[in-house]
Design a protein that fits this description.
Elements (H helix, E strand, L loop, with lengths): L1 H10 L7 H5 L2 H32 L9 H10 L5 H14 L7 H28 L2 H4 L6
Helix pairs in contact: 1-3, 3-5, 3-6, 5-6
Length: 142
């Protein structure tokens, strides 16, 4: 669903992806909301399920690892960049806050989320390619 929503968003002409147009059009706003929601859900699923499952498949001792240690280990193994992941986590926190009096801040978060969602999908494709074929099916984010 996220991939389809991003494709629909990208198919819109640039002039139709401007704040004043999106916020005044219910259909475009629903599409953007779907991207935001799916990004949040995917980021949570990767953090809660994919990261531990991948480390378990690779026989890493995750029981005593803090999340930052898990991210650092996955970075060393070539799965992700820990700082990028933490930036996405911070973005998720920013999405959940409303900025009614600051439309520029709200729009900046929305634009960053669209870019992050696209990057996260690319990361997942890379991630899956890094896993042994037998593990790729058992390690899915959602």
């Amino acid at each position: 669903m996220l991939k389809a929503a991003l494709a629909d968003w990208s198919a819109l002409p640039a002039c139709e992806r401007q704040p004043e147009v999106v916020e005044s059009d219910a259909q475009r706003l629903r599409l953007l909301d779907q991207i935001l929601f799916r990004f949040l859900k995917l980021q949570d699923a990767v953090g809660e399920r994919l990261i531990p499952a991948t480390l378990e498949v690779l026989a890493e001792p995750i029981e005593t690892m803090a999340m930052r240690d898990r991210l650092n280990r996955l970075e060393k193994l070539g799965f992700l960049e820990a700082d990028t992941w933490l930036t996405w986590r911070a973005l998720c926190n920013r999405i959940t806050h409303e900025y009614p009096d600051h439309p520029e801040a709200r729009w900046a978060v929305w634009e960053a989320t669209v870019a992050a969602a696209d990057a996260m999908l690319a990361l997942l494709a890379h991630w899956r390619a890094q896993l042994p074929p037998s593990a790729a099916k058992s390690v899915t984010p959602c």
